[in-house]
Amino acid sequence: MNYTGVIIGPELDYDFITKKLVVYKDLYKDKNGKNSIKDDEILLDYIINIYKTIFLRGIEGTYVYVCNPNLRKYLSQYIPLFEADERKSTLEFLNSQGVNTIPYYDISVAAGSFSDMQAAEEVKYINMPELSNPDDYFACKVVGDSMNKVIPNGSICLFRKYFGGSRNGLITLVEGREIWDSEMGSNYTIKEYTSKKTTDEDGWKHEEIILKPLSTFDYDSIVLRDELVMNFRVLGIFEKVL
Fold first, then answer.
1. pLDDT tens digits, one per residue of 60-89
2. What is the reported pTM?
3. Which residues of 26-56 are buried (b: 16+ CB within 10 A; e: fewer)?
């Protein structure tokens, strides 16, 4: 995984007098480990190895929460404390296109097709000098909580224009006549894309396309079958929240 989150439970602590890790057997809830291991030192090594294993699962990094204050104080010497950064990035909106700008479309108030929005004179632009090829990108505001595990409600997001290739497992911005997203209030939706394909003598075709929400709330997936799969198109691939 890219990142992991680990909670070190109340069974593991640090003794500043002996300068050793200690285990509280009564607070350790794994009955298989607790009942089969009688020696506290062996149990301590057993628990440490479990934590060591899950600490190493995050490719980019690991977030740690420690229940016991002494152990938290000890580990803070080696693991930097988390401080929430409440600052929000400031986006520079422009009325005209520049060398390093990308177009910004407010699809939540769009009345027509994506092509109509692209041709509209009132399109805003965002300055993005860090992009090496800004012509391949655009930005949209995402409204609603159906993707809030990845995209908070009201976020302005960067999308890479879709030029072809596999979309399975990617978060996509989709336009379709048979799609109505109540949150976006339009025929656009942003969901995780998966598809099932079948092959016959004419080649392959989509049997089913599933547009899956990634939310802490209960949202239904949008399922397209038969002729419905012909009446939509992928506009962009989600890159990040701006």
1. 888 999 999 899 889 988 888 776 555 556
2. 0.60
3. eebeeeeebeebeeeeebbebbeeeeeeeee
